[in-house]
Amino acid sequence: MAHKVKKAAKVLSQRQIAEGIFDMWLETTIAGDVKPGQFVGVYPVNKSTLLPRPISICEVDKERSAIRLVYRVVGSGTAEFALYEPGDFIMILGPLGNGFPIEKAAGKNVVVIGGGIGVPPLLETAKRLSMETGDNKPDSVSGVMGYRNSDGFLFDEFKEYAQMHMATEDGSAGVKGNVIDAMRQDQVKCDVIFACGPMPMLRGIKAYAEEIGAKAYLSLEERMACGVGACLGCITKTKEIDHHSKVHNARICTDGPVFDADDLDM
Amino acid sequence: MNTEVTIAGVTFKNPVMTASGTFGSGMEYSDFVDLNRLGAVVTKGVANVPWPGNPVPRVTEVYGGMLNAIGLQNPGVEVFVERDLAFLADYDTKVIVNVCGKSVEDYLEVVERLSDEKVDMLEINVSCPNVKEGAIAFGQNKDALYDITSKIKAKAKQPIIMKLSPNVTSISEMAKAAEAAGADAISLINTITGMKIDIYKRQFALANKTGGMSGPAIKPVAVRMVYEASHAVNIPVIGMGGIQNAVDAIEFIMAGATAVAVGAMNFHDPYTTVKVVEGIEEYMTKYGVEEINDIRGIV
Hints:
The complex is a heterodimer of chains A (266) and B (299). Chain A is 16% helix and 34% strand. Chain A is an alpha/beta fold and 266 residues long.
């Protein structure tokens, strides 16, 4: 596993891409080590704060030694991040977590599924899947993204890497409904799923994967403190006794955030 | 310059330790800091059998700190010995194992299991606010504290540190009870019971409703309690609560602490422990302090 560090990253660019959604590129030496589906802890400067904010890595540009974070402003910490401008420095901890098992898609019809602010980490995932060659190459790469409305942030960027489908809650674009509705309606070919999004969506995907006999790998989210596996704040229930905890709890920050859906007790 | 401190016959290369529960058994933080630089690693609490802990959310940030209600999730003493103690055996640092239980018998089982292991001291957790049975029930009543301390002291091969709760009327009374029962040292403060409500979701921020507060905001409370406790007893005091840097650590030492522990700040900066060690050394050099013990309780 790549060496984890806490260090300053330089803001290269920042822009708002949808209501409350920001897109920031950071220059950092960790870029070369990042696997799709990993995340970083980002520290607000505000001295009243203590904990890093876990934010998934949306894209990696190894040539510029840069990572891209697409995040939603949900509180005072992320509101501070949204004020950062090119040239500013921001402290990050990472790369954290395990990432999606890209190799599981070899020779299969793989679908990346994102919901809301769960969409961003799937962009780098789709990119890497599309770059696989030879025996590692997936049979097909599709994407299904669910949004509240037609803003569909990042959706167009996926088109370079995957056959794309959209679902919106209000029906203003794509299929009206959720990502499973879009999967069914558009008859998306699916053997393996890589997904990130809200818990109800992930539960639905786990059930859908079981129904169609597909494998699903789910990226989970939880309140975290340390981000490195020490504090045991961010656990998820597992079917079997976990190797580390010796109880039915796995650490989302280090054993995850990506889990084989079959291993989870959701 | 001499940074060594001695507690109950155990000599630590410097007074900087980790606060139980914030550092695992050091494995996760060994990616960031050289554990050999620390006075001691104080492990996360371990019980006789694996504990599943509380439901999530278990942690939440508050102004100047955080609340946690992990609920002492731990893999049980057998796995702890095989994995965590085996890991720590390779480092030149002292090992203090934090022991938790739901009954006196639970504590004694862990203490006895560790008696022949490479453990320098035991820290007895009678102050975790996040579990319903045991733990804090022993730490909020001086008679109960006396009782469990004396029973553990009778069985323990290693010196024992009683970790005290700040959620009491008189920390001095509790410190005296621990000393009278034979404790070799006391450590304080454990977290302060707190609560946070999410007004948008109209529910508690933590599944456990209450949690233990830690972080920089609790430091003045901790310094005051370390001062009071160290003046109430003759046994050494290990001080902790919101330490961010060497300045904070020295403040605790001047209040009367023989050693100090870094807790929640590890989550903010995983390099904090070693920065505190280095900062203390710099302070001693700059201000001509030859023995760290010379400034202990100096106020």
